[in-house]
């Protein structure tokens, strides 16, 4: 028992909320793997409140907590002690009863959340202790997922958890409840009326990021907009985003970028994802990989830019996903593009980038048509001193032949004309179709905008 309360007293004496929050983590440090077990065995159900009250009310040198606040912390650590007991039971539970064990863990951890909320609402917990809400909220979400899935035992499952979309999950009872509890924490921080220097609003973006992760896991991304509306309503009473830790900024901008991406607002998505990329720590490889997963398709549509091998070299998974598509787009290989899209379909759909990448076929087609234009050579100049001008009147049949070869499908002239009209409409080509003569008349001042041809 003493190590945890010794750390609490040190953190409290230094006004270090992160140090205090580490006394509420469900993962023991590598230097003391038996810490949680020893803490749970240090007391029992009959004497736990008495023992904790002694530690927090009477044995608090070199400072003394106000009685009401001290009683609030007694409730918090009592709930934490019960949750630790359930965690130890779940880690040792037989496989047949794993799900029930993790449901008990979730319910007991929820009691810890409730005790913390009461602490801020009724017992005067100070704003600098909000990292305790970060830790409690983070693991509430993780335990909810474990309870719903009924999988995972031991600390390894906690630390290796990845935040992926989960559109196929049907039963998320505990995770939905966790979202409600996290929203309560969000409101506790957002509605604080203390001056900004002493406000719980400094914890707002960490909790928002937890809510975003939870809504994405629940496939309820539209709920994220309610959070954004609430932030907007309090905008004048909150610190600017740039005032928060970079880790909070990166995660927030990443999720905002993904939300815009899913709304097909690729310009705003690219802006937020680029900012997240620039702020991201150079060694945060996993985070950079997640950002690039959406930033690469954004660049493809907004600037027609393909990722380089140098950019993708640290990310083998992204190389596997994007390099085949990039090569086919560059070459104008329509059949190869279709094959690469099918090969990565499962991952593209999981990440919800399939439909966006599918639009890359237009870029591949543009590159194929440009090759036809370049292969057409130059027109004979009437004035020998005049600069050479590329042939700009190209038979539809020539484009049709190239498209049929590139897609490995025979296409008639009407289908080809339809594709060419679509390319002109999207400003991927400049010119017009002269149907009566069966030719395409391309612009002499940049037939394929942005390509340098």
From TrEMBL:
InterPro entries assigned to the protein according to its UniProt record, in alphabetical order: Csn12-like, PCI_dom, WH-like_DNA-bd_sf
Domain PCI, by residue range, is 250-447
Give one Pfam hit by family name. PCI
Q: Which domain of life is it from?
A: Eukaryota
Entry's PROSITE patterns?
PCI
List, in alphabetical order, the Gene Ontology terms for molecular function in this entry: double-stranded DNA binding; RNA binding
Q: Which SMART domains does the record associate with it?
A: PAM
- Tell me the protein family, please: Belongs to the CSN12 family.
Q: What name does UniProt use for this protein?
A: Protein CSN12 homolog
Per the UniProt record, the source organism is Lachnellula suecica
**What is the taxonomic lineage of the source species?**
Eukaryota, Fungi, Dikarya, Ascomycota, Pezizomycotina
UniProt lists the gene as csn-8
């Amino acid at each position: 028992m003493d190590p945890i309360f010794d750390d609490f007293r040190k953190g409290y004496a230094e006004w270090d909320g992160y140090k205090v929050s580490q006394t509420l983590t469900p993962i023991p440090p590598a230097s003391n793997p038996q810490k949680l077990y020893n803490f749970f065995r240090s007391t029992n159900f009959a004497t736990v409140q008495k023992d904790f009250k002694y530690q927090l009310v009477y044995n608090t040198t070199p400072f003394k907590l106000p009685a009401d606040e001290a009683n609030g912390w007694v409730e918090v650590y009592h709930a934490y002690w019960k949750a630790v007991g359930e965690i130890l039971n779940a880690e040792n539970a037989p496989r047949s009863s794993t799900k029930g064990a993790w449901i008990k863990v979730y319910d007991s951890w929820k009691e810890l959340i409730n005790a913390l909320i009461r602490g801020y609402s009724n017992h005067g917990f100070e704003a600098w202790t909000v990292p305790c809400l970060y830790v409690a909220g983070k693991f509430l979400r993780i335990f909810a997922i474990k309870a719903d899935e009924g999988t995972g035992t031991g600390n390894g499952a906690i630390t290796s958890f990845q935040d992926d979309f989960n559109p196929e999950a049907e039963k998320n009872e505990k995770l939905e409840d966790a979202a409600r509890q996290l929203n309560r924490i969000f409101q506790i921080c957002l509605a604080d009326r203390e001056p900004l220097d002493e406000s719980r609003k400094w914890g707002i973006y960490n909790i928002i990021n937890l809510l975003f992760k939870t809504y994405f896991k629940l496939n309820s991304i539209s709920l994220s907009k309610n959070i954004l509306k609430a932030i907007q309503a309090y905008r004048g009473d909150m610190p600017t985003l740039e005032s928060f830790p970079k880790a909070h900024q990166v995660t927030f901008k990443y999720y905002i970028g993904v939300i815009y991406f899913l709304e097909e607002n690729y310009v705003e998505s690219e802006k937020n994802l680029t900012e997240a990329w620039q702020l991201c720590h150079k060694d945060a490889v996993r985070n950079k990989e997640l950002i690039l997963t959406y930033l690469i398709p954004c660049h493809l549509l907004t600037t027609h830019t393909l990722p380089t091998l140098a950019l993708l070299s640290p990310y083998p998974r992204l190389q596997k996903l994007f390099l085949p598509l990039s090569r086919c787009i560059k070459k104008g290989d329509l059949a190869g593009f279709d094959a690469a899209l099918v090969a990565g379909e499962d991952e593209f759909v999981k990440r919800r980038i399939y439909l966006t990448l599918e639009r890359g076929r237009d870029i591949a087609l543009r590159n194929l048509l440009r090759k036809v234009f370049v292969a057409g050579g130059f027109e004979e100049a009437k004035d020998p001193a005049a600069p050479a001008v590329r042939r700009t009147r190209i038979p539809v049949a020539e484009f049709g032949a190239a498209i049929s070869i590139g897609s490995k499908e025979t296409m008639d002239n009407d289908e080809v004309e339809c594709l060419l009209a679509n390319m002109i409409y999207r400003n991927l080509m400049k010119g017009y179709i002269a149907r009566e003569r069966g030719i395409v008349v391309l612009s002499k001042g940049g037939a394929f905008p942005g390509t340098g041809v």
